[in-house]
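Appendix B: complex inputs.
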Amino acid sequence: MNPLDTPLTRRGFLGTVGALGGALALAACGGKSTPPGTGGATGAAAGGASYSGPAVKLAFWNGWTGADGDFAKQMVDQFNKANPNVQVQMNVYQWADFFQKLPAAVQSGNGPDVSVMHIDDIPTQAAQQVIVPIDEIAKALNLSGSQFAPAVWNGGMYNDKRYGIPIDVHNLGLFYNQDLFDKAGISAPPTNESEYLDALDKLKSKGIQGSWVSPFQFTGGFMFQSLLWQFGGDLYNSDNTQATWDSDAGVKALQWMVDLVNKGYSPKNVGQDADYLALKNSKNAMNWQGIWQVNDVNKLTSPKIGLAPLPKIGSQGGVWGNSHQFVLPRNGSNDSNKQAAARYFIHWFTQHEAEWAQSAKVPAETSLQQSPEFTKLTDLKPFAQEVPDVHFPPAVAGIGDATGKLYDAIQAAVLGKSDPAGALHSSANTATGILSSNKKKYG
Amino acid sequence: MTGTVTAERTQSQATPVRRRPVRGHGVATPYLFLLPYGVLFIGFMVIPAAYGIWISLHDYDYLLPHQPWVGLQNYTDLFKSGTRDSADFWNSMKATGIFTLFSVPFLVVLPLGIALLLNRAFPGRTFFRAVFFTPYVLGVAVVSVLFRFLLDPNIGVVNTYLHHLGVARNIPWTTQLPWAWVSLVGMTVWWTLGFNAIIYLAGLQDIPRELYEAADVDGATNWDKFRHVTLPGLRPVMVFVITLTILASANMFGQALLVTNGAPANQTRTAIMEIGQVGLRQYRQGAAAAMSYILAVVLILISLINFRLLRNRGEA
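Resulting structure:
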């Protein structure tokens, strides 16, 4: 099977690929008893466009603990049915545990055969050789930078080698409570600062605190970053050697969030996840929330939750986002058949990217964002619309250590423990120190 | 090993008749009985602990090919202000200290009271013993998530009822001090007091009944009996409970991680959270090992003081 030229024909080809995969699988069924080694691991050379080796089992680890995990399981089942000689077993861990377990498992030779991680974790794991380069898969899939937003495409790179195959973009959007909007007489979701504040005043007159500000990374940290970009700032300088979130734009962004609390548009002391739960309980009217919750709000019979792009509070568009990318963990067993099958699985999954979007994600490939399979998912449209404005975490090894300091500062300010400028300034100083010590460590 | 033990037993069964009537076992028998624990203790405690010292002397990341030797720098950095970890680490040590200081007295005294009550004869005693012990069987994640939602400042059940009763509004149970400590200490006491109560209960049942009868004959009041019979009788149990509770409190991790997640501004981030963060999320095992050793030394010192104090009082 030759890699196909354009994504458009590739999509048209999906059915054929599936059928061929099935046929190959059937052909391989007869060779089930083939001892390892004799079955050709041609898939590896071909970058995973097909797999014709003996039957193998693959372990697939990810951190999809929510509804997206259920959806991934369905896709894995679909893959397993179509490919009887490659059986994928999926294991889900909390992302927080995931990055303790995965490196340890890989190091001891018990790592999974295939995995998924976020853009900002790829460089750290690549530098530590937890994952291996997979340029040839990108080649076999005929992927090129022009098909993706630059940050998504470059986020999969580390030291000029490709480690991640992007499958989605997941970003923030405005989740609003339609029932409360009706009650306050708000006709449409706000799109800019004056509309936002106007909506908040209308809600306030009905006794509703309309925009709960979370002091935690979910979602206060994401809200801050979106505002920072909207006001023209950025997290780090261009070569990622200095934290710059204490710029005027940063101070403005954090002050804006703190003002929501001070002016009574948000209660004080919002607990973890309370901003989102209150939205669903009709206590909060607007939440800057991740696309991954779309399927969750759609399960509600009441209240109705509407979805819209983030309002432009600053002078330009700015939306926090991230991307899931497939990675190949370093394999201790060196079983070339497994490696070939894992490549084939990544290949297959990437070609079903439009289906994966149903788990409430925007497809990573820009052309797929216009595809009928995706555009029929109307709930996700506002999120896809925002993609040009989405900023991703920088792809630098150990970047999470530095950004963690930002989340501490946001919390201190939103909880009224310190003033925004002071908190941002001292955390940026600390983070700059961390960047330089990480640079020394990871090179 | 099984063969040896069987041989020993056969021998020891035979010995009383033939040669050495007094000795009941072979020379190696006690050590053989200790062996299974010894293997685990050496394998999972002694060797890792010693290896940890080695790790703490390096800029250690087990995933990287080179682990540069840094000598004592991981330790000295912690005592130097302005270094990457010193402020966060000592802040977390302080958090652990506060939690221990406030949870231990409750966890030592309350279970004793409950054990005294549950030691009396009354209908439904077994039921109540079970009731007090039940929370202890729940996992930390279950308890913590439960309390996080019960105690949510704005949408929690507790604040809703307090508001309806007109007591207070929107107490920030999980996001501000001192409330976050009240929550963490309170839920931990609720969760683990059953365990200490069971140990006290076992201790109470070991105190000879004759002592109480003798005290009755001497005309002792209930307070006298508690003061002069119960408390001295419980002293070894008490030492055990206090030591264990201090160590358990100093290792507090899950509750703070899940209920407050360190809020506000990392003031409830405990030492174990900090060590986990540095060692497992930032992949700096050298610095994390150094922190662990400092925490361990502090705990050893506290345990020694604890033993000494309680022993001296016993001798007095």
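The mean pLDDT of chain A is 87.
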